[in-house]
Amino acid sequence: MMFFMVLIPIVLLLGLVPIVIFTKNMKRTRLKKSFHRNIIVGYLVLLLLGVFVAEFMERKVELHIPPKVTDKNIEFDLQSAIVEGATIPEHLVLAKRSHEVKDELSISPFTGAYMLIERTPHHSNVVSETVYTPELLANIGDGDGDDVYYDFTDQLKIALPVWENNWMTVPKQPRNTIQYTFYHDSNILNQFTGEKTHGYSSGSVSATMMIHLVIPESIELNLPEIESERGTYIEFLE
Amino acid sequence: MSAITLKNVSKSYRSITVLDQLNLEIRENVITGLVGRNGVGKTTLMKMIAGFIKESEGELRVFGEHPFNSLKVSANMMFIDDMMGFPDALTLDDLLTECDRFYENWNQDLAMRLLEYFKLPLSLNHRVLSKGKRSTFNAIIGIATRCPLTMFDEPITGMDAGARRDFYRALLKDYIAYPRTILLSSHHMEEMEDLLEDILVIDGKSISFHGPITELQEKFLSLQARESVLKSYAIRYAVVHRANAGPMTEWIVDNQHTKAEVEELKQAGIRVSAVSASQAYLAMTGQATGGVDDVFNAMERQ
Amino acid sequence: MFSTQWSVNELAKRQYLFKLSTNGAVFTTLIVLQIIGTIFISGAGSSSMNEWEEMISVNYTSISNDSQVGLTLFWALIVGFLLTSAAQRNESFSFVTNRLTFQLANFYFICTAALLGGVMTVLIGSVMKIVALFGDNVIIETTGLLSSPLDFFSRILVMTAYTLLIMMIGYLLGTLIQFSKLFIALFGLIWFVYFTFGVSLSVGEGDSVLYFYYGETSILVFVLKVVVSVAVLFGISLFVTNRLEVRNP
After folding, report:
1. Plot region of A169 (φ>0 → left; ψ -120 to 50 → alpha; else → beta)
2. Gap between the Cα atoms of A226 and A235, Å rounded
């Protein structure tokens, strides 16, 4: 506290001095009074122009704004939904495929995905695969609980697992760089607009790609070492 | 009717008394010269009358109003000095416009003509003017506002001889056309003598003389003769000033002579004449006796 | 005898017009400050990166008119302070005025400056918005003039109110310091006491002076609070200045 007590006046004074000198100099320079009037009017006109340009541009951009998600949708637990067989929102399902496998299925070590394996007591050589999309939500809010999330899931590039000759490979996921720009008016201005307290903290919430395999008992599995250093996450469902 | 009335007015800053118990009445529509040595409170008196500063004691009235915080006094009063603050952002032209905004009797035409005569371009800024030009501009403002009460405090600071002469002339002409109460302070008494009707001498915190200028002159007599003659005939009078000019010596003495005494002096070959107002003023404020020479003479004697 | 008679209102108005024509630089300074704020401070924004398993990285740029708001409030404090300078006083007292009309003219000028400051600061938000709109994946959290005009005007009102408040505080500080230089020492002491004891006392934000205004949710009560505060600040200035001697070096 002591530190701030000394620092704040110094910073204020440092800021004050140039502004005072500048103002005094401005007064001293022999600018006619009409000069100032013209500057002020010109500036205001420019700003008003800015308002309408912004308004116009905003309308054009609005269509591309990623969808908003509320807190409740984020708390959706995909894994337990799969286990319990609950309904899963359709937008989370990336691909639903079936693959024919002869006797043995080998899975290469992989990273960047989470695999759930369910064994069925059938005799079949068909493995059904459901790939759930990874999610990316940008979080803009102050962490007070009424955070706003923007869903960038659609913009993620995803590489689906490759099935070839009884081998399943999860390819290395492409790099995803999501860039977003965020504008908000100063909170001081938004005291009565209900738009207060957004935008001071920002983060992201993401979920990994989840692969749900339903494999008949008759097919033998050749798995990589589970939870090895290389980060292959596989879980068996009871 | 008197324009300005002071009853036992004093002004002090903390423990320093600048003006002490002044009683004064200044007649309306009269040009009064305010003279006195440096630091006797001429400016303080004028600022008090202008309402810029407040009297510490006593009763001060300007046209029947108490001037401090009085809009009436402010609107009908103009105070000109060389410290006048004019905004840097405005040109002389803009300043004239502002005068027009504030002063009802303002004469734009007169101001423009005077500025032209004194070679003051309208596009200039007040700040860049030389000292003399600035004083000239301020003086022009003072004349052209035509306020019922106009005060000039050392208006001629920095002006050259020509400008000073022209200023006094302009002031007198405009005063004759539009009579008003004018207070004028200056150290150059001899230059404004012709202009003044009344004179107010302040000496040592109080008024030592106030009245028509001729009355001041009548207080003294100038005696001119050889020193020996003066010493034998005029020694009984209070001598306020001695001066040597060639063979003749001039004494300025208090005018307390009877007619017979003056005749006697004239018989003795002494030239008796009236003094000028500035001589009288110098004599009165003690600036005439020896002066600073005495300081050096005294040092030499030691 | 008197030839001219002014009413206080008429003269305050004329002094105000005089102030406007001599203090154009005050507004030009604000404009320069805002432009500097736009180019050098807000343009940088704040960028951060979150990586998850090296596969997803999120970069965001946050743009707002915070810096312009800050600069405007800072400007307000200084303008309020500068208005009490001896030069300003002498300029006014070169023409017809008394202390009341002088103060009223200053107050009108402060109101004008605050309004202009408020309008300019809110409007420059749109310029910042345009800057933001050139970025990728733009998210606009602030509604515009056409989509919700009421919010837009409430922003102008709030900004004007805060600018006015801060200007009046600067004005009062300046007035007190002009009255006696001892006040500089007093303000230093208050600052010291506030930071040594005040901060530790007011833990919750509900206690602080700022929250008195900032925490207000009703626009009417807010306006009332600001109006009363401004009236009190102006009243004190008026009281202090009414005995001030001018053109007295």
Report:
1. beta
2. 9
Of the partner residues A15, A22, A202, the one whose CB lies closest to the CB of residue C48: A202
3-class state of residue B265 by DSSP: helix
- Written as one string, the DSSP assignment of chain A is -HHHHHHHHHHHHHHHHHHHHHHHHHHHS---HHHHHHHHHHHHHHHHHHHHHHHHHHHHHGGGSPPEE-HHHHT--HHHHHHHT----GGGEEEEEEEE--SEEEE----SEEEEEEEES---SEEEEEEEPPEEEEEEE-SSS--EEEE-GGG------EEETTEEE-PPPPPEEEEEEEEE--GGGGTTTS-TT-SSEEEEEEE-EEEEEEEETTSEEEPPPTT-TT--EEEEE-
Across the interface, which of B71, B86, B102 has its CB nearest the CB of C91? B86
Chain B residues within 8 A of C11 when measuring between CB atoms: 71, 75
Chains that touch A (3 or more CB pairs under 8 A): B, C
- Note whether A33 contacts B88, CB cutoff 8 Å: no
Q: 3-state class of B271 per DSSP?
A: strand
pLDDT at position C44 is 45
Q: How far is CA C63 from CA C67, C143, C249, in A?
A: 10, 14, 49
CB contact under 8 A, A33 and B90: yes
CB A131 within 8 A of CB A210: yes
Q: Which residues have CB under 8 Å from C232's CB, separation 6+?
A: none
Burial classification of residue A128, based on how many CB atoms lie within 10 Å of its CB (0-12 exposed, 13-18 middle, 19 or more buried): middle
Q: Which residues contact A20 (CB under 8 A, 6 or more apart)?
A: C78, C82
Tokens of A211: 């692969």
Count residue pairs from B and C with Cβ separation < 8 A.
93
Comparing A143 with B254, which gets the higher pLDDT?
Answer: B254
ipTM higher than threshold 0.90: no
E strand or H helix that includes residue B274:
strand B271-274
- Cα distance from A27 to chain B (closest Cα, Å)? 6
Distance CA A211, CA A194 (A): 41
Contact at 8 Å (CB) between A138 and A152?
yes
Percent of chain C with pLDDT over 90: 39
Q: How is residue A164 written in tokens?
A: 């070839």
C82-117 residue pLDDT tens:
999 888 888 899 998 999 999 999 999 999 999 999
pTM (whole model) above 0.90: no
C3/B104 touch (CB, cutoff 8 Å), yes or no: yes
Tell me how far apart the alpha carbons of residues C155 and B225 are, in angstroms, rounded to a whole number: 91
pLDDT in tens, C132-147: 888 777 777 777 777 7
- Total Cβ atoms within 10 A of residue A183: 27
> Would you call B152 helix, strand, or coil by DSSP?
strand
CB B229 within 8 A of CB B272: no
Nearest CA in chain C to A23: C29
What's B204's DSSP letter? T
Over pLDDT 70: what percentage of chain A? 71
Give the burial class of C75: count Cβ atoms within 10 A of its Cβ; 0-12 exposed, 13-18 middle, 19 or more buried. Answer: buried
The 10s digit of each residue's pLDDT in B261-290 is 888 888 888 888 888 888 888 888 766 555
Instruction: For residue A27, give both structure tokens.
Output: 């007064």
Interface test with A, best of C139, C148, C184, C194 (most A CBs within 10 A): C139
CA dist., res. A186 & res. C68, Å (int): 9
Tell me the chain C residues in contact with residue A183 when contact means C-beta distances shorter than 8 Å: 62-64, 128-129, 132-133, 138-142
Q: CB contact, 8 Å: C141 with chain A? A: yes
Nearest-Cα distance to chain A for C2, in Å, is 33
Strands (E), chain C: 46-52, 56-64, 138-140
The Cα B274–Cα B280 span in angstroms is: 9
